[in-house]
Write a structure and sequence with these properties.
The protein is of the alpha+beta class. The protein is built from eleven helices and 14 strands. The chain has helices spanning 4-19, 29-34, 83-100, 116-124, 151-157, 160-171, 184-198, 205-215, 260-274, 296-303, 322-349, and strands spanning 39-47, 50-62, 67-72, 77-78, 102-107, 128-130, 140-145, 175-178, 220-227, 230-240, 243-251, 279-284, 308-311, 315-319. β11, α9 and β12 form a beta-alpha-beta unit. The chain is globular and about 60 Å long.
Amino acid sequence: MLTNEQTAKTKELYNFLQSNNKSHYLQSPQWEEVKANWKHEMLVVENNEKIIGTMSVLLKKIPLLNSYMMYAPRGFICDFNNKEALEKLTEEVKKIAKKYNAFIFRMDPDISDSNHNFKEMMKSLGYKLKTDSKTIQPQFVYRLDIKGKTPEMLLKSFKSKTRYNINLAIRKNVKVREAQKSDIPIFYKILKHTAKRDNFCIHDISYYERIIDNFGPNHAKIFIAEYENEPIAAAMSILYGNKTWFLYGGSTDKNRNYMPTYLIQWEMIKWAIENNCDIYDFGGVSGYKNENNPMYGVYRFKKGFNGEVVKFTDELYIVFKPHINDIWTIISRFQQQIFCKNTAALKKYK
């Protein structure tokens, strides 16, 4: 049972994460519980007993190397102009690295790639920038500014084809409802079908159940689109701090021409507006610059909502054990080559 002091600290942490404009669901205590196969540490730094920065660090042991890899997805959470907060968080990172015998720390913050002052500040604290495109989180995302806007204002701002498709779904009497936990198998069945059709990987059903268990109902919802009481599309989103993220979604082949995916996105955007969010994040848009890229269609769909592509800064990292990190780099490249060969073989087989 938590003491009154622990309860107060937990509430203070929650309030900080909800009020900071760099807050991210991947940096929440809830996400630590979703990633149950990783160890985790929540770091909190203060000034005059007031929280000025936090960071959720995931730690995964590499048995072959008898060492840990540390990763802070979209960390830190703080004022990125506050060097004191950055310094204190970095010192905590080093303490955790020593505690777990970690060989590397990696992070990919929610910071624009154009913020050169931030990059220079982080370099001065000992970080290096990974300049290749192989980042854990997408470096390019598509975001819609919804701050202070009404549904009517946003709907008018969408591309004409997107507005048409939303209204088409409504005219065809497609209905979108908020799902219950008992509906997760419906969501998963649609997602699994979509993954097979469009050739992408998904998690097992327990992963999505953990998201709803730890974030729902205030922070995570599943939306299901139905036609004549038959589910034809589904999507999951998370609301945290001042943002809402579209996480996963899919559709059946039947009645796809009724545009249920457009209507679901619209309902999730309205949910974000109702909760006074500033940003609706559609997720990654890899391949958006090349119309021949297989992922271009995903970008074209998102583009219709008239947001903008945001490029985040390169991944930042600190190596604590260079020799072990070199070995891990070789192992990782080998694993990637095997994965690519297996993927290519699978596509050829299909």
